[in-house]
């Protein structure tokens, strides 16, 4: 089992222990300041009722994206993180 699988397994266990679903969940990502990459992240949460806030870094090279959205279960959260991994240069916090 690689580190990513271990991370997701641990996250799922923690979410199931500490969270009553459905629940609001805050995703945080850092992406390069590229309109296409920002749009890819925003598109992951289309039609979910998510509140998305973006903040530029001091140098303007990166954008912090916070997404507050109601998630139905732990598996849905993990799926969003896995989908986000496909965005080149993304950092999930």
Q: What descriptive keywords fit this protein?
A:
alpha+beta; Alpha-Beta Plaits; 93 residues
Can you give a write-up of this model?
The protein is an alpha+beta fold and 93 residues long. The chain has a single domain, classed as Alpha-Beta Plaits. The chain is 40% helix and 30% strand. It is built from 3 helices and 4 strands; from the N terminus they run H-E-H-E-E-H-E. A 4-stranded antiparallel sheet has the order 2-3-1-4. The longest helix has 16 residues. The mean pLDDT is 94.
Draw up the topology in text.
Layout (H helix, E strand, L loop, with lengths): L2 H16 L4 E10 L2 H10 L6 E6 L5 E10 L2 H11 L6 E2 L1
Antiparallel strand pairs: 1-3, 1-4, 2-3
Please tally the β strands and state the result: 4
Helix content: 25-40%
Mean pLDDT: 94
CATH superfamily: ACT domain
The value of Rg in angstroms is 14 Å
Q: What is the number of helices? A: 3
Bin the strand percentage.
Answer: 25-35%
Structural class: alpha+beta
Name the CATH architecture.
2-Layer Sandwich
Summarize the biggest pleated sheet: 4 strands, antiparallel
What's the CATH C level? Alpha Beta
Strand/helix succession: HEHEEHE
In the CATH hierarchy, the third-tier topology is known as Alpha-Beta Plaits
Strand line-up across the major sheet: 2-3-1-4
**Gap between N and C termini:** 21 Å
């Amino acid at each position: 089992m690689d580190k990513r699988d271990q991370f997701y397994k641990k996250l799922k266990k923690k979410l199931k222990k500490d969270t009553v679903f459905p629940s609001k969940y805050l995703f945080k990502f850092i992406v390069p300041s590229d309109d296409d990459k920002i749009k890819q992240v925003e598109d992951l949460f289309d039609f979910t009722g998510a509140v998305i806030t973006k903040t530029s870094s001091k140098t303007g090279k990166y954008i912090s994206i916070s997404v507050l959205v109601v998630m139905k279960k732990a598996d849905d959260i993990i799926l969003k993180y896995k989908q986000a991994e496909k965005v080149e240069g993304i950092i999930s916090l």
